[in-house]
Protein backbone atom coordinates (compact mmCIF):
# COMPACT_ATOMS: atom_id res chain seq x y z
CA UNK A 1 0.00 0.00 0.00
CA UNK A 2 2.62 2.46 -1.19
CA UNK A 3 2.52 6.10 -0.14
CA UNK A 4 5.85 7.89 -0.48
CA UNK A 5 6.49 11.57 0.28
CA UNK A 6 9.41 13.66 -0.95
CA UNK A 7 9.91 17.06 0.69
CA UNK A 8 11.93 20.13 -0.28
CA UNK A 9 11.72 23.85 0.50
CA UNK A 10 8.42 23.60 2.39
CA UNK A 11 6.65 21.52 -0.28
CA UNK A 12 5.82 17.84 -0.65
CA UNK A 13 5.40 15.48 -3.60
CA UNK A 14 3.47 12.22 -3.14
CA UNK A 15 4.51 9.19 -5.18
CA UNK A 16 1.80 6.51 -5.32
CA UNK A 17 -1.26 6.03 -3.15
CA UNK A 18 -2.20 2.37 -2.91
CA UNK A 19 -4.27 -0.19 -1.04
CA UNK A 20 -3.89 -3.68 0.34
CA UNK A 21 -6.64 -6.24 0.89
CA UNK A 22 -7.88 -8.33 3.81
CA UNK A 23 -5.27 -7.15 6.29
CA UNK A 24 -5.35 -6.19 9.98
CA UNK A 25 -5.03 -2.52 10.93
CA UNK A 26 -2.48 -3.34 13.64
CA UNK A 27 -0.04 -6.28 13.90
CA UNK A 28 -1.82 -7.78 16.91
CA UNK A 29 -5.35 -7.36 15.52
CA UNK A 30 -7.04 -10.70 14.82
CA UNK A 31 -9.67 -9.04 12.62
CA UNK A 32 -8.98 -7.98 9.05
CA UNK A 33 -10.40 -5.14 6.98
CA UNK A 34 -11.34 -5.72 3.36
CA UNK A 35 -9.52 -2.64 1.97
CA UNK A 36 -6.63 -1.03 3.84
CA UNK A 37 -4.38 1.95 3.09
CA UNK A 38 -1.68 3.98 4.78
CA UNK A 39 -2.99 6.63 7.18
CA UNK A 40 -2.52 9.93 5.27
CA UNK A 41 -2.98 12.22 8.28
CA UNK A 42 0.57 13.64 8.22
CA UNK A 43 0.14 15.08 4.73
CA UNK A 44 -3.61 15.74 4.76
CA UNK A 45 -3.13 18.07 7.75
CA UNK A 46 -0.77 20.20 5.62
CA UNK A 47 -2.36 19.61 2.21
CA UNK A 48 -1.65 23.19 1.14
CA UNK A 49 2.01 22.11 0.95
CA UNK A 50 1.28 19.09 -1.27
CA UNK A 51 2.30 20.18 -4.77
CA UNK A 52 1.00 17.09 -6.55
CA UNK A 53 0.59 13.33 -6.65
CA UNK A 54 2.49 11.11 -9.09
CA UNK A 55 1.32 7.55 -9.84
CA UNK A 56 3.97 5.19 -11.25
CA UNK A 57 1.63 2.48 -12.60
CA UNK A 58 -1.86 0.98 -12.39
CA UNK A 59 -1.48 -1.74 -9.77
CA UNK A 60 -3.89 -1.48 -6.83
CA UNK A 61 -1.06 -1.16 -4.30
CA UNK A 62 0.03 2.02 -6.10
CA UNK A 63 -3.21 3.68 -7.22
CA UNK A 64 -6.11 2.00 -5.41
CA UNK A 65 -6.46 4.39 -2.45
CA UNK A 66 -6.45 7.61 -4.45
CA UNK A 67 -10.20 7.74 -5.27
CA UNK A 68 -11.00 7.31 -1.57
CA UNK A 69 -8.41 9.79 -0.27
CA UNK A 70 -8.25 12.52 -2.91
CA UNK A 71 -10.73 14.80 -1.10
CA UNK A 72 -8.17 14.98 1.72
CA UNK A 73 -5.49 16.26 -0.69
CA UNK A 74 -7.26 18.13 -3.53
CA UNK A 75 -4.22 18.49 -5.76
CA UNK A 76 -3.33 17.51 -9.34
CA UNK A 77 -2.50 13.89 -10.21
CA UNK A 78 0.19 13.09 -12.81
CA UNK A 79 0.45 9.75 -14.59
CA UNK A 80 0.62 8.10 -18.01
CA UNK A 81 -2.27 7.28 -20.35
CA UNK A 82 -3.10 3.70 -19.30
CA UNK A 83 -2.91 4.43 -15.57
CA UNK A 84 -4.96 7.60 -16.13
CA UNK A 85 -7.66 5.54 -17.87
CA UNK A 86 -7.76 3.03 -15.00
CA UNK A 87 -7.83 5.88 -12.45
CA UNK A 88 -10.65 7.74 -14.20
CA UNK A 89 -12.83 4.63 -14.09
CA UNK A 90 -12.21 4.35 -10.37
CA UNK A 91 -13.00 8.04 -9.86
CA UNK A 92 -16.27 7.60 -11.75
CA UNK A 93 -17.35 4.96 -9.24
CA UNK A 94 -16.96 7.39 -6.32
CA UNK A 95 -18.45 10.44 -8.04
CA UNK A 96 -15.17 12.29 -8.58
CA UNK A 97 -14.75 11.91 -12.35
CA UNK A 98 -15.14 15.64 -13.00
CA UNK A 99 -13.32 16.88 -9.89
CA UNK A 100 -9.83 15.42 -9.99
CA UNK A 101 -7.32 17.07 -12.36
CA UNK A 102 -5.55 14.08 -13.98
CA UNK A 103 -2.59 15.23 -16.09
CA UNK A 104 -1.32 12.69 -18.64
CA UNK A 105 2.44 12.58 -19.22
CA UNK A 106 4.58 10.75 -21.75
CA UNK A 107 7.87 8.88 -21.68
CA UNK A 108 10.90 11.17 -21.17
CA UNK A 109 8.59 14.13 -20.47
CA UNK A 110 9.46 16.46 -17.57
CA UNK A 111 6.83 18.21 -15.48
CA UNK A 112 7.47 20.98 -12.95
CA UNK A 113 5.34 20.13 -9.91
CA UNK A 114 5.89 22.86 -7.35
CA UNK A 115 9.61 22.90 -6.56
CA UNK A 116 10.09 19.42 -8.07
CA UNK A 117 11.05 18.63 -11.66
CA UNK A 118 9.82 15.12 -12.41
CA UNK A 119 10.89 13.14 -15.48
CA UNK A 120 9.20 9.88 -16.53
CA UNK A 121 11.41 6.91 -17.59
CA UNK A 122 9.86 3.79 -19.14
CA UNK A 123 10.79 0.34 -17.84
CA UNK A 124 9.19 -3.12 -17.73
CA UNK A 125 6.82 -4.67 -15.17
CA UNK A 126 3.61 -6.74 -15.26
CA UNK A 127 1.21 -3.94 -16.24
CA UNK A 128 1.13 -1.57 -19.24
CA UNK A 129 3.14 1.65 -19.00
CA UNK A 130 5.15 1.16 -15.80
CA UNK A 131 7.39 4.15 -15.17
CA UNK A 132 10.31 5.12 -13.00
CA UNK A 133 11.11 8.79 -12.49
CA UNK A 134 13.81 11.20 -11.56
CA UNK A 135 12.81 13.86 -9.04
CA UNK A 136 15.06 16.90 -9.31
CA UNK A 137 15.46 19.74 -6.80
CA UNK A 138 18.30 22.20 -6.04
CA UNK A 139 19.24 19.86 -3.17
CA UNK A 140 19.81 16.85 -5.44
CA UNK A 141 18.32 14.40 -7.91
CA UNK A 142 16.50 11.27 -6.80
CA UNK A 143 15.81 8.19 -8.93
CA UNK A 144 12.59 6.43 -7.84
CA UNK A 145 12.24 3.06 -9.59
CA UNK A 146 8.63 2.15 -8.85
CA UNK A 147 8.00 -1.54 -9.57
CA UNK A 148 10.19 -3.02 -12.28
CA UNK A 149 12.08 -5.97 -13.71
CA UNK A 150 14.43 -6.43 -16.66
CA UNK A 151 12.24 -8.05 -19.32
CA UNK A 152 13.77 -8.11 -22.78
CA UNK A 153 10.73 -9.88 -24.27
CA UNK A 154 7.64 -8.37 -22.69
CA UNK A 155 4.26 -9.30 -24.16
CA UNK A 156 3.24 -5.63 -24.16
CA UNK A 157 5.47 -2.67 -24.98
CA UNK A 158 9.19 -2.44 -25.67
CA UNK A 159 11.91 -4.43 -23.97
CA UNK A 160 13.89 -2.96 -21.08
CA UNK A 161 16.18 -0.16 -22.29
CA UNK A 162 19.51 -0.28 -20.50
CA UNK A 163 20.65 2.89 -22.30
CA UNK A 164 18.07 4.97 -20.44
CA UNK A 165 19.53 4.00 -17.08
CA UNK A 166 23.19 3.97 -18.08
CA UNK A 167 22.65 7.64 -18.98
CA UNK A 168 21.69 8.36 -15.36
CA UNK A 169 25.27 7.66 -14.28
CA UNK A 170 26.17 11.02 -15.83
CA UNK A 171 23.41 12.85 -13.93
CA UNK A 172 24.92 12.55 -10.44
CA UNK A 173 22.01 10.66 -8.86
CA UNK A 174 21.98 11.40 -5.14
CA UNK A 175 19.74 8.47 -4.14
CA UNK A 176 18.12 5.50 -5.84
CA UNK A 177 14.88 4.46 -4.13
CA UNK A 178 14.42 0.87 -5.28
CA UNK A 179 11.90 -1.98 -5.33
CA UNK A 180 12.97 -4.78 -2.93
CA UNK A 181 10.20 -7.35 -3.50
CA UNK A 182 12.45 -10.11 -4.91
CA UNK A 183 15.72 -9.05 -3.26
CA UNK A 184 16.00 -12.41 -1.49
CA UNK A 185 15.99 -14.30 -4.80
CA UNK A 186 19.20 -14.93 -6.72
CA UNK A 187 19.60 -14.66 -10.47
CA UNK A 188 17.17 -13.00 -12.87
CA UNK A 189 13.38 -12.97 -13.08
CA UNK A 190 11.85 -14.80 -16.05
CA UNK A 191 10.24 -13.00 -18.97
CA UNK A 192 6.50 -12.68 -19.50
CA UNK A 193 7.13 -14.39 -22.86
CA UNK A 194 8.46 -17.43 -20.94
CA UNK A 195 5.17 -17.52 -19.07
CA UNK A 196 3.19 -17.37 -22.31
CA UNK A 197 5.16 -20.34 -23.66
CA UNK A 198 4.70 -22.28 -20.40
CA UNK A 199 0.95 -21.70 -20.38
CA UNK A 200 0.76 -22.72 -24.05
CA UNK A 201 2.62 -25.98 -23.32
CA UNK A 202 0.31 -26.67 -20.37
CA UNK A 203 -2.98 -25.92 -22.09
CA UNK A 204 -2.42 -27.34 -25.59
CA UNK A 205 -2.56 -30.95 -24.33
CA UNK A 206 -5.77 -30.43 -22.34
CA UNK A 207 -9.03 -32.03 -23.53
CA UNK A 208 -11.43 -30.33 -21.11
CA UNK A 209 -12.23 -26.84 -19.82
CA UNK A 210 -9.32 -24.74 -18.59
CA UNK A 211 -9.74 -21.92 -16.06
CA UNK A 212 -6.85 -19.58 -15.25
CA UNK A 213 -6.82 -17.44 -12.11
CA UNK A 214 -4.58 -14.38 -12.26
CA UNK A 215 -4.38 -10.72 -11.25
CA UNK A 216 -6.72 -8.58 -13.33
CA UNK A 217 -4.11 -5.84 -13.77
CA UNK A 218 -1.64 -8.18 -15.49
CA UNK A 219 -2.75 -7.24 -19.00
CA UNK A 220 0.33 -8.91 -20.52
CA UNK A 221 -0.76 -12.24 -18.97
CA UNK A 222 -4.24 -11.73 -20.40
CA UNK A 223 -2.84 -10.99 -23.87
CA UNK A 224 -0.66 -14.08 -23.59
CA UNK A 225 -3.71 -16.18 -22.72
CA UNK A 226 -5.54 -14.64 -25.68
CA UNK A 227 -2.73 -15.93 -27.89
CA UNK A 228 -2.90 -19.34 -26.21
CA UNK A 229 -6.65 -19.51 -26.92
CA UNK A 230 -6.09 -18.64 -30.56
CA UNK A 231 -3.34 -21.24 -30.99
CA UNK A 232 -5.22 -24.06 -29.22
CA UNK A 233 -8.62 -23.57 -30.86
CA UNK A 234 -10.32 -22.28 -27.73
CA UNK A 235 -12.56 -19.30 -27.04
CA UNK A 236 -11.34 -16.82 -24.41
CA UNK A 237 -13.80 -15.45 -21.86
CA UNK A 238 -13.36 -13.31 -18.75
CA UNK A 239 -15.36 -13.59 -15.54
CA UNK A 240 -14.89 -10.79 -13.02
CA UNK A 241 -15.67 -7.10 -13.22
CA UNK A 242 -12.08 -6.04 -12.60
CA UNK A 243 -10.88 -8.21 -15.50
CA UNK A 244 -13.37 -6.86 -18.02
CA UNK A 245 -12.71 -3.31 -16.85
CA UNK A 246 -8.93 -3.70 -17.20
CA UNK A 247 -9.20 -5.16 -20.71
CA UNK A 248 -11.52 -2.31 -21.66
CA UNK A 249 -8.91 0.20 -20.44
CA UNK A 250 -6.26 -1.68 -22.43
CA UNK A 251 -8.40 -1.47 -25.59
CA UNK A 252 -8.98 2.27 -25.18
CA UNK A 253 -5.26 2.95 -24.80
CA UNK A 254 -4.13 0.62 -27.59
CA UNK A 255 -2.67 -2.20 -25.51
CA UNK A 256 -5.10 -4.96 -26.54
CA UNK A 257 -4.42 -6.58 -29.95
CA UNK A 258 -7.32 -6.33 -32.42
CA UNK A 259 -6.88 -9.96 -33.49
CA UNK A 260 -7.58 -11.44 -30.03
CA UNK A 261 -11.37 -11.73 -29.57
CA UNK A 262 -13.07 -12.23 -26.22
CA UNK A 263 -16.47 -13.90 -26.05
CA UNK A 264 -19.30 -13.08 -23.65
CA UNK A 265 -19.07 -15.36 -20.61
CA UNK A 266 -22.81 -16.07 -20.96
CA UNK A 267 -21.98 -18.17 -24.05
CA UNK A 268 -19.64 -20.57 -22.24
CA UNK A 269 -22.35 -23.10 -21.44
CA UNK A 270 -22.98 -23.72 -25.14
CA UNK A 271 -19.39 -24.62 -26.00
CA UNK A 272 -17.73 -28.05 -26.01
CA UNK A 273 -15.43 -28.48 -23.02
CA UNK A 274 -12.29 -28.58 -25.17
CA UNK A 275 -13.05 -25.12 -26.61
CA UNK A 276 -13.28 -23.27 -23.27
CA UNK A 277 -10.51 -21.06 -21.83
CA UNK A 278 -11.67 -18.76 -19.04
CA UNK A 279 -9.71 -16.19 -17.05
CA UNK A 280 -11.08 -15.39 -13.60
CA UNK A 281 -10.29 -13.41 -10.46
CA UNK A 282 -9.54 -14.89 -7.05
CA UNK A 283 -6.07 -16.42 -7.35
CA UNK A 284 -5.36 -15.52 -3.70
CA UNK A 285 -8.38 -17.40 -2.37
CA UNK A 286 -10.51 -14.27 -1.89
CA UNK A 287 -13.91 -15.28 -0.57
CA UNK A 288 -15.99 -13.11 -2.92
CA UNK A 289 -14.01 -13.71 -6.12
CA UNK A 290 -14.93 -15.92 -9.06
CA UNK A 291 -12.59 -18.84 -8.25
CA UNK A 292 -14.30 -19.34 -4.91
CA UNK A 293 -17.71 -19.27 -6.59
CA UNK A 294 -16.52 -21.82 -9.14
CA UNK A 295 -15.23 -24.07 -6.37
CA UNK A 296 -18.62 -23.87 -4.65
CA UNK A 297 -20.38 -24.38 -8.02
CA UNK A 298 -22.42 -21.20 -7.71
CA UNK A 299 -20.95 -19.18 -10.57
CA UNK A 300 -23.76 -17.99 -12.84
CA UNK A 301 -21.81 -18.18 -16.11
CA UNK A 302 -19.85 -21.41 -15.71
CA UNK A 303 -19.99 -24.80 -14.02
CA UNK A 304 -16.94 -27.01 -13.86
CA UNK A 305 -16.93 -30.80 -14.02
CA UNK A 306 -14.58 -33.57 -13.02
CA UNK A 307 -11.22 -33.47 -14.85
CA UNK A 308 -11.47 -29.81 -15.84
CA UNK A 309 -8.28 -27.89 -14.99
CA UNK A 310 -7.83 -24.77 -12.83
CA UNK A 311 -4.44 -23.04 -13.20
CA UNK A 312 -3.22 -20.55 -10.58
CA UNK A 313 -1.12 -18.14 -12.67
CA UNK A 314 -0.12 -15.85 -9.82
CA UNK A 315 2.31 -15.72 -6.94
CA UNK A 316 1.20 -16.94 -3.51
CA UNK A 317 1.22 -13.65 -1.62
CA UNK A 318 2.62 -14.30 1.90
CA UNK A 319 -0.26 -14.74 4.29
CA UNK A 320 -2.63 -16.13 1.64
CA UNK A 321 -1.22 -19.66 1.49
CA UNK A 322 -3.93 -21.25 3.65
CA UNK A 323 -6.77 -19.62 1.71
CA UNK A 324 -5.26 -20.75 -1.62
CA UNK A 325 -4.71 -24.32 -0.39
CA UNK A 326 -8.27 -24.50 0.97
CA UNK A 327 -9.57 -23.39 -2.40
CA UNK A 328 -7.47 -26.00 -4.21
CA UNK A 329 -8.73 -28.71 -1.88
CA UNK A 330 -12.31 -27.65 -2.56
CA UNK A 331 -11.76 -28.13 -6.29
CA UNK A 332 -10.03 -31.48 -5.75
CA UNK A 333 -12.99 -32.63 -3.64
CA UNK A 334 -15.06 -32.33 -6.81
CA UNK A 335 -12.35 -34.11 -8.87
CA UNK A 336 -11.43 -30.85 -10.62
CA UNK A 337 -7.67 -30.69 -11.15
CA UNK A 338 -5.60 -27.70 -10.01
CA UNK A 339 -2.11 -26.58 -10.94
CA UNK A 340 0.05 -24.09 -9.06
CA UNK A 341 3.44 -22.73 -10.11
CA UNK A 342 5.36 -24.79 -7.54
CA UNK A 343 3.74 -28.00 -8.82
CA UNK A 344 5.09 -27.90 -12.38
CA UNK A 345 8.41 -27.47 -14.19
CA UNK A 346 6.66 -25.36 -16.84
CA UNK A 347 6.60 -21.60 -16.31
CA UNK A 348 2.94 -20.72 -15.60
CA UNK A 349 3.68 -17.57 -13.61
CA UNK A 350 6.51 -15.04 -13.56
CA UNK A 351 7.16 -12.21 -11.14
CA UNK A 352 7.11 -8.56 -12.14
CA UNK A 353 9.95 -7.66 -9.77
CA UNK A 354 13.76 -7.78 -10.00
CA UNK A 355 15.91 -10.53 -8.53
CA UNK A 356 19.41 -9.93 -7.19
CA UNK A 357 21.27 -9.89 -10.52
CA UNK A 358 18.82 -7.34 -11.93
CA UNK A 359 19.22 -5.15 -8.86
CA UNK A 360 22.99 -5.38 -9.23
CA UNK A 361 22.70 -4.46 -12.91
CA UNK A 362 20.62 -1.36 -12.26
CA UNK A 363 22.78 -0.13 -9.38
CA UNK A 364 25.85 -0.57 -11.60
CA UNK A 365 24.25 1.38 -14.45
CA UNK A 366 22.86 4.26 -12.37
CA UNK A 367 25.75 4.59 -9.88
CA UNK A 368 23.81 6.46 -7.16
CA UNK A 369 25.53 7.87 -4.09
CA UNK A 370 22.88 6.37 -1.81
CA UNK A 371 20.69 3.27 -1.99
CA UNK A 372 17.30 3.45 -0.30
CA UNK A 373 15.48 0.09 -0.50
CA UNK A 374 11.67 0.25 -0.41
CA UNK A 375 8.64 -1.93 -1.14
CA UNK A 376 9.21 -5.02 0.98
CA UNK A 377 9.45 -6.45 4.47
CA UNK A 378 12.56 -5.67 6.57
CA UNK A 379 14.34 -8.81 5.32
CA UNK A 380 13.80 -7.70 1.71
CA UNK A 381 15.10 -4.19 2.45
CA UNK A 382 18.19 -5.65 4.12
CA UNK A 383 18.87 -7.95 1.17
CA UNK A 384 18.46 -5.07 -1.31
CA UNK A 385 20.91 -2.97 0.68
CA UNK A 386 23.43 -5.82 0.64
CA UNK A 387 23.18 -6.04 -3.16
CA UNK A 388 23.72 -2.26 -3.37
CA UNK A 389 26.78 -2.54 -1.14
CA UNK A 390 28.23 -5.33 -3.33
CA UNK A 391 27.47 -3.13 -6.36
CA UNK A 392 29.73 -0.40 -4.93
CA UNK A 393 26.99 2.04 -3.93
CA UNK A 394 28.82 4.12 -1.26
CA UNK A 395 26.02 4.28 1.31
CA UNK A 396 22.80 2.39 2.07
CA UNK A 397 19.94 3.72 4.19
CA UNK A 398 17.46 1.26 5.66
CA UNK A 399 14.43 2.59 7.47
CA UNK A 400 10.90 1.74 8.50
CA UNK A 401 7.49 3.29 7.96
CA UNK A 402 7.46 6.69 9.64
CA UNK A 403 11.20 7.34 9.36
CA UNK A 404 12.33 10.59 7.73
CA UNK A 405 15.32 10.23 5.40
CA UNK A 406 17.33 13.44 5.25
CA UNK A 407 19.36 13.34 2.04
CA UNK A 408 20.86 16.86 1.90
CA UNK A 409 22.87 18.77 2.94
CA UNK A 410 23.81 15.93 5.32
CA UNK A 411 22.61 12.33 5.23
CA UNK A 412 20.79 10.66 8.12
CA UNK A 413 17.57 8.94 9.15
CA UNK A 414 15.39 10.55 11.79
CA UNK A 415 13.56 7.62 13.31
CA UNK A 416 9.77 7.68 13.72
CA UNK A 417 9.40 11.36 12.84
CA UNK A 418 5.95 10.80 11.33
CA UNK A 419 3.10 8.99 13.02
CA UNK A 420 2.00 6.28 10.63
CA UNK A 421 -0.56 3.51 10.63
CA UNK A 422 -3.33 1.95 8.60
CA UNK A 423 -6.94 2.90 8.02
CA UNK A 424 -9.81 0.89 6.59
CA UNK A 425 -11.62 2.09 3.47
CA UNK A 426 -15.18 1.40 2.40
CA UNK A 427 -16.08 0.51 -1.19
Automatic annotation (TrEMBL):
Listed SMART domains: Lactamase_B
EC number(s) recorded for this UniProt protein: 3.1.-.-
Transmembrane segments: none
GO molecular function: hydrolase activity
Annotated keywords: Exonuclease, Hydrolase, Metal-binding, Nuclease, RNA-binding, Zinc
Domain Metallo-beta-lactamase: 1-199
Name of this protein: Ribonuclease J
Originating organism: Marinomonas primoryensis
Amino acid sequence: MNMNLYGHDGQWLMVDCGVSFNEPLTPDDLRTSEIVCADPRFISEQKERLAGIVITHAHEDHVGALPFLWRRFKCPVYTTAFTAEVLRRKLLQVGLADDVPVIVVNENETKKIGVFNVKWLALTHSVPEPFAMTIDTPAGRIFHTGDWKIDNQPIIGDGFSSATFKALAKENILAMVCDSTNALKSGYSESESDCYRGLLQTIKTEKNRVVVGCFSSNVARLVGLGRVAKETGRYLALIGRSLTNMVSAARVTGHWPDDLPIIDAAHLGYLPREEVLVVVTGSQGESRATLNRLAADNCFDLSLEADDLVIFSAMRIPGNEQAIDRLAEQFKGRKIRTLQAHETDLTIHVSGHPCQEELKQLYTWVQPQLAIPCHGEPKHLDANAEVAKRSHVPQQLIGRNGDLYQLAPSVNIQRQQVKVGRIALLR
